[in-house]
């Protein structure tokens, strides 16, 4: 199953629900889960189709909505996109590359 970012709904600044635009420049790649994220997702990796890290993670959350532990873990993870640390950057600004990878790294004990 592919984690895909689709058009959906969002709330604007006036509090009204509006339709969000579909992803215009979506690319395909793979999301890899490590340690507790791997255990909580039930898979080691899965494909994505999205333009940004935020869209890919939104699709992962929708795909795994029945796995509350994974949803909780994702809020505390560090991410690598094509081996580059994302750090504190806004996930909506982190563009994904075709054939790229997103590494999901939960906090590790001891460092």
Q: What does the model show?
A:
This protein has one domain (23-105): Beta-grasp domain (Ubiquitin-like (UB roll)), CATH 3.10.20.30. The protein contains 3 helices and 8 strands; from the N terminus they run ββββαβααβββ. The chain has a 6-stranded mixed beta sheet. Strands 2-3 form a two-stranded antiparallel sheet. Residues 7-22 have low confidence and may be disordered. The chain has helices spanning 35-41, 53-63, 68-74, and strands at residues 3-4, 9-11, 17-19, 27-33, 45-50, 78-81, 84-85, 100-105. With 111 residues, the protein is α/β, with parallel strands linked by helices. Strand 6 and strand 7 (84-85) form a beta hairpin. The radius of gyration is 14 Å and the shape is globular. Helix 1 (35-41) runs antiparallel to helix 3 (68-74).
């Amino acid at each position: 199953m592919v984690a895909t970012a689709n058009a959906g709904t969002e709330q604007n600044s006036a509090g009204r629900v509006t339709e969000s635009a579909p992803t215009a420049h979506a690319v395909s790649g793979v999301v890899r889960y490590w340690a507790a994220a791997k255990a909580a997702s039930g898979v080691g990796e899965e494909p994505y189709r999205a333009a940004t890290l935020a869209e890919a993670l939104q699709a992962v959350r929708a795909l795994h909505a029945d796995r509350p532990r994974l949803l909780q873990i994702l809020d505390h993870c560090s991410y690598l996109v094509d081996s580059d640390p994302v750090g504190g950057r806004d996930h909506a600004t982190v563009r994904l590359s075709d054939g790229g990878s997103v590494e999901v790294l939960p906090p590790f004990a001891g460092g």
